[in-house]
Amino acid sequence: MSGRYEVKPGMMAFGSYFGNAQADQQVFQIDDNFAHYRQAKFLARGERLSKYYQTCNYSKAVAGAITRLIINRLTQEHPQHFHYQKSIDNILKFHSQLTKETLYLDADLQLQEVEGSSVVPSYASTLDALAAQVQEDLTIICRSDDGSNWLGAVHLCYPNHWSAEEKIGKDFATIHAPVAGMEKINRRGGAIANTMITQKPMVRFAWGLSTDTRLNHHPEPPSGVSVSQWQGRSFDSQHPQLYLRIERQVIWGLPEYEAALFSIRTYFRDCSVVKKHPMLRSKLYAAIQSMTPESLIYKGLVESKASILQWLQE
């Protein structure tokens, strides 16, 4: 965090060192919270799968390439957890030691069968099944021959106030139009999509503030839950709970398929710990202070900005 709130691409080479040892080299970061993240995906899927998982003009060729990429990365990055083998009849068998699930995929890497799973609803596709093996959300950007780009697939069980159903099929600029401060970037939406697809893998980080550590902040709460309770944007200075919600986003282009995988891993950092470090506290204070009125509205901080800043100074 620089001490100034800015909206910019901020892409760095994948594998750049951030002090996290081997994890910085991984697309898929697995930690002791795996079971909690998996349960959050199951709760979302159980609510209504189409609320969190969508595809649009997602070709079999691109789907197969994304599957190969995910399986290759998982088996390379975590050989103790994942392995696969091909049978003579061209069936690929992918096994997760973490979930005890085995996926059987045909020659096109389409899901045929799942062993060791009691998931409800049952997996709808290979992407749906693979998303349940990791702690990241997965999105896939596609591009056609005429250069137009669109969101071809999205598996988003940890949304940060955006909706898979609303964004599917839209281009980069349209998807990001509601984001305050994105105007200049959106004018280069096609160029950024091109960078995502054609350049070497990249990583970027985004952050916001939340008053809870719930992974799922879909704009539409589940039935029986109030909007204010669900949103995680109600700061109470009498009982302060505030967290940095940090997204580690990895972009992995597949230029031969005119597509890119965009993974989102969500982490939380307790601001009561942050405020104990003078430099971190001053940077967070300055970043919130520097937000434009539009950014405060977008981040849901209009009403709580003053009380958060006061709390940080206490």
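That was protein one. Protein two is written in the same sequence-then-structure order:
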Amino acid sequence: MHFFDTHAHLYDARLIADIDSILQPADNQVDFIVCPSENLETAFQTILLANRYREVYAACGIHPLMVEHITLEEWNELLNKVKNLPKVVALGETGLDYHEKTVDKELQKKWFIRHIEAAIEFNLPLIIHNRKAHGDLLEILKRYKKSLRGIMHGYSGSVELAKELIKLGFYISFSGSITFTNSRRIREVVRQLPLEKILLETDSPFQTPMSRRDEVNTPRNIVYIAEAVAQIKNTSVEQVAKITYQNAQCIYNIIM
């Protein structure tokens, strides 16, 4: 089987030291991995990884909890660099995070909108992080509903919100959290959504699937997420792998 991991932080210290081994071919082959950044430093690291490894593609953006640490000048310099790089396939991760309550909400919204407008200008999808900000997130996205597309990363919201986001042109991405014992609500979201709107992600090195909880998560664990989706939707793992692979190729415009 062949898989597409739509979200993995390969630059993380827990992965980068062993990156050559992690990316070695395996029985359940991960053909493509999108590596999203969290700040300016990791944005440049994702670009380096994408240039070094055939299967790695970059997404550049500033995590909502990191927006206090970048200037508008630095942001514009980053955009000028990425706009002509073919292996930068998205902007993100960006979004809103009201869970931690450490970064001003208005500042988060301002930077979220900057990412949205840049994504529209460059005709790139957006990778969105959302924690306890559903109302503001939806209100902002609806302003751009005719122009924007993207991925809701590590989805943890309601069925109703997911359906609204799909109407706005978004795919819904699920991580290893759907394998957790307390994941009944998220599993219900998976059950109700069409497979044609679902993506798989490991969010490595985070969100390790339950059967591998004592290990650092890597893209190879994507198979366990596919197995969980297949069980929920009463279909084969092969079908989940095939359709989610096609979905990811479509949203990221990666056709090989």
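The longest helix spans residues 105-122. Keep this in mind for the problem set.
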